[in-house]
Request: fold
Amino acid sequence: MHSSPKNISINDFDYDLPNERIALFPLENRDQSKLLIFKDEQIKEDRFENILTHIPKETLLVFNNSKVINARIVFEKSTGSKIEIFCLEPAGDTYEYSSVMSEKGSSIWKCFIGGVSKWKTEYLEKFVFIIDKEIVFKAKIISNLSEGFVVKFEWNDESISFAEILDKTGDVPLPPYIKRSTELTDSRRYQTVYAQHNGSVAAPTAGLHFNEQIMAQLNQHQIHQAFVTLHVGAGTFKPVKSETMQAHEMHAEWIDVDLNTIQKIVDQKELIIAVGTTSLRTLESLYWLGVKSLLNPDLENLMLYQWDAYELQANEISKVEALTALMVWMNKKTINRIFTTTQLLITPGYSFKIVKAMVTNFHQPKSTLLLLVAAAIGSKWKTCYEYALQNDYRFLSYGDANLLFMAES
Reply:
């Protein structure tokens, strides 16, 4: 175990990933991915369609039901040059994604801009056809951020929502390492079958392997399910550029979980498996938010910072105690959902409080996601990744899957 997560060297989490191992396209059928199962220090192999046979009865599977939005908007100038605006997260007065997506007439977002030096006019504009109407859609930079810009979008029809605008003008935000143009199939395949709440700018990719058939089989396998929402930000691809984690700023992401789901997690006596690193971060964040509300019940706002899990004096506070405290705090505030940001960074040395296994894809070298995998299964991540590289596994977002069981502590 590392003396402090801040001293972890990212170079210890590097491996050689040849370009040809990065899956550029999804398989024809979601459930035909390979599945690497790591349990009791052993590696087994199967197809994803059989995943439920490897999960004990009465397990609670927790899914992230955030929906990927068409976050990439390309404006073409009369000269033919292109400016690409990548919507990251809302920047207006409201952060509630459902409210933002239903905004009419205008919406304000934090964005990355590709080709910003070509943006010479106050407004960029393009024409869009929605329900047989021609809409003028415009973008204007309001301010600069340390990373990116604040952009105001405007359109001349008060009956059209921002969700409809994005749907028509935006493009699927494939990850930067999928070096190809988007295709029609991406709008379906870069989305989980259970996606519900608009907000992610990258897919929670572990969920991409589940099809309607597997979801329908959960009950007959006596496997329970719960849904949380974490809106995946572009920061999920942010490389760690500092030598140690101390100088790396973990990206913050919005989570949204209702009281009934928290109660379900409290009541769950058997195994809890997170489908994806995002579901895992959400569940573990709930524990630490509960700890914060227990240590300081009068906190006005609950949010989680990068090092909280390592610096809060939890003193063996149990899952039930922490989550019960969180529900008490929510009841006091008369809210039935916790909607806040988490910056939780999970590194080797982290002690998992809720999740005991995870479904996940293969992640980039030197990434915070790989650190999370190493936190879950220790140095065996190298063994798993070497096995996958030697056995023709496909890597990253459209690649194959792992089912990783953490060692019993």
In short: The two ends are 13 Å apart (CA to CA). The longest helix spans residues 277-295. Residues 71-171 form one domain. The chain has ten helices and 18 strands.
